[in-house]
Design a protein that fits this description.
The protein is of the alpha/beta class and 257 residues long. It is built from eleven helices and ten strands. 43% of the residues lie in helices and 16% in strands. Helix 1 links the parallel strand 2 and strand 3.
Amino acid sequence: TTYETIIVETEGRVGVITLNRPKALNALNTQLMNEVVSAAKAFDADPEIGAIVLTGSEKAFAAGADIKEMSSKSYSEVVSEAFFGAWDDLSRVRTPIIAAVTGYALGGGCELAMLADTIIAGENARFGQPEINLGVIPGIGGSQRLTRAVGKAKAMDLVLTGRQMKADEAERAGLVSRVVPTEEALTVAKEAATTIASKSLISVYLAKEAVNRAFDTTLTEGVRAERGLFYSLFATDDQTEGMAAFIEKRDPEFKHR
Ligand code: HXC
């Protein structure tokens, strides 16, 4: 497949997707959305890929939905084409996605980072939901995922004022897992992805599913779901191998099944 708005590479068991519309600060137009979703689904279908890194440029992870593409759309157009609905497909990718965010992650850019499973930020990262400045509101899950990530007070502050939040504030608020020097963000994200990709893929899938359950169910139901997933792993070759390797004081050789 040839892509025009992203660069797709593999490094060992890690798939890397780089947003590549530098002249528009990686603004998310329909083509870019379709390409990112297509590339992520292809990695997800590839058993040789154990983790995905999603990144942009040093200046911008993504400066939002493409305002130029969006500005002339009518109500009936956005409804009938389910405008930006394809982004929802990313949340159905089972392979872990790590966003390496440097520079601007605004509007749809912040929402895209939050569609990833975890965010590693460079010190120069700026997060925000500035849609209010354009007379609209977040439309790719920002009002929901930001609120779950940072709580009501800060989510309201960001969504209502449209202000930008620096990386250290984002880390204190729990939006990002780590802040590292800007030039190291991609490397650190790739290292984390390589670590994840060295585990049993099946336990990685179920671990991700278990953590995600925390966001859409009660504690009792979530713990019950976790227990069922945990029990199910005792039916896998990789549980046998992982525990045998510990006892035999050697590294496990996972078969991913
Ligand atoms: C289209 C964009 C863009 C965007 C930047 N550009 N952001 N084009 N959509 N979201 C373009 C500019 O028009 C410009 O192109 C080029 O990228 C460089 O941007 P500058 O503004 O010149 O750079 P700078 O002065 O460094 O300012 C950076 C910036 C600013 C602070 C990030 O670009 C900015 O405020 N961008 C918009 C941020 C925003 O509002 N995002 C939310 C979008 S709404 P030209 O051709 O003029 O040189 C959204 C809704 C999500 O995301 C929900 C949808 C369903």
